[in-house]
Amino acid sequence: MTQERHDVVVVGAGLAGLAAARHLSRAGRRVVVLEARSEVGGRTRTRKLDGVTADFGAEWIGWAHRRVRRLAAELGLTVEPARNVGRPVLWRLPSGESMGRLPPAGTWLELVKVFGRAGWAARGVKPGSAWTATRADELDRKSVAGWLGELEVSDEVRYLLERLLGSLSSSSLEGLSLLQFAWWMRLAGDPVRSLYTTFQSRLSEGTQELARRLAKQAGVEVRFEAPVSGISQNGHVLVETEGGGRHEARQAVVAVPANLVPRIEFDPPLPEAQAALGDLRIGSGTKVIALLPPGHGVRHNTVLGGEPLWGAWRRGDRITGFVPEPQADAPDEELVADLAAAFRVDPGALRHPTVFRWSDEPHVRGCDLAFAPGQVRSHGPALASAHGLIRFAGAERSSWPNNMEGALESGERAAAGVLQPAERPGTPL
Predict the structure, then answer these.
(1) Whole-angstrom Cα distance, residue 85 to residue 102?
(2) Residues 286 and 356 sit within 8 Å (Cβ to Cβ)
(3) What is the DSSP string of 57-125?
(4) What is the C-alpha separation between 24 and 33, in angstroms, rounded?
């Protein structure tokens, strides 16, 4: 087949890849984006249910997500208050259900202790390089579960924290490094602000619209259904797709989930540290979304706890539940039934109940990254490193893992690396 020539090939049309492509295009580079799927968006996915916007992937925007907010304004999108934090919450705990803005009073002292200790542990942790912290080795050796055992917290508080942190990482507490928890706390600043770091706002038009409009604005061509099979480099880069396409360029940006990069055949091979990123676990989160029946009154906007759903929330008549990996095998009807129970409605009365499992997406295979104990230190330094003429991007390669802000940050950083004159070896095409 014909071998095409470009300045830069970008692999992946999620927010990271599109941010890199736009940055490079504005700098005058000829860019093509190769996307394995039939649409842009990566781990964002917006659909309409009876005319109502529903986000089946990334959804939340926090107070500190400056890149996302700036890009939304530039693209003419509307950032709306989420109205979840500070509103009534249904707490579904082992001791029973209760309603209130705060957790049950019996948990307060322990929660203050846990978040206070986590804030203390986060001192000196740099979000862009958490593995360099003075106590990084000590913190990374421990799981959050093991650390809570040392603090001797009650089963009730442990359950509450597992539902909260599991909904952010799609992981059990045993599989989550304490250093990653400290990293989150460092980003937030304090426990109260940590809620607003994540759950403050949404996009009225849906988060995938960020990628759709960014792709149009970037001024680059996106080739769909073009999964990349191999990338070789010898003074230039040759990117080959499974369909036989060949794209020659000065450099490349690979913006796919870090654990899927080893699926691509590299020549020369990836260094051992980068190949080991395939060991990272990106949890197979699932969202179940439905519309409430007309006229159904709901007092609470948020649900925390329960099984199989670990958390749920409401926006108008649209209700959403999240199922992390430990409950990922629950059948669809069970998920829908629990979502209905969380909002006090008969399952048969829900409109357009829809279940979407990120583990079923062959070119994504999950949603949220959870560093297991020991992995922040062992894998963190390799996340932002280049491989010759190839740069890498993706939310997990940023200071904001599992977040759209991180995806944009990583794409901009990868593009900046490509544009550095001292790091542009290769033969002109």
Answers:
(1) 10
(2) yes
(3) S---B-TT-HHHHHHHHHTT--EEE---TTS-EEEEETTEEEEESS--GGGHHHHHHHHHHHHHHTTT-
(4) 11
Give the model's confidence band at 193: pLDDT under 50 very low, under 70 low, under 90 confident, else very high: low
Among 374, 378, 342, which residue's Cα sits nearest to residue 91? 342
Contact yes or no for 412/19 (Cβ under 8 A)? yes
> Between the CA of residue 373 and those of 74, 116, 161, 209, what are the distances in Å?
39, 21, 17, 35
For residue 170, pLDDT beyond 90 = no
Cis amide prior to 308 (ω within 30 degrees):
yes
Band the pLDDT of 422: cuts 50, 70, 90: very low
CA dist list (Å): 107 to 91, 114, 342: 12, 11, 21
Whether 156 shows a pLDDT value over 90: the answer reads: yes
What pLDDT, on a 0 to 100 scale, did the predictor assign at position 327?
Answer: 79
Where is average pLDDT lowest: 29-33, 187-191, 210-214, 323-327?
187-191
- CA-CA-CA-CA dihedral for 44, 163, 378, 152, to nearest 10: 170
What is the spatial distance between Cα 267 and Cα 289, in angstroms, rounded to a whole number?
A: 43
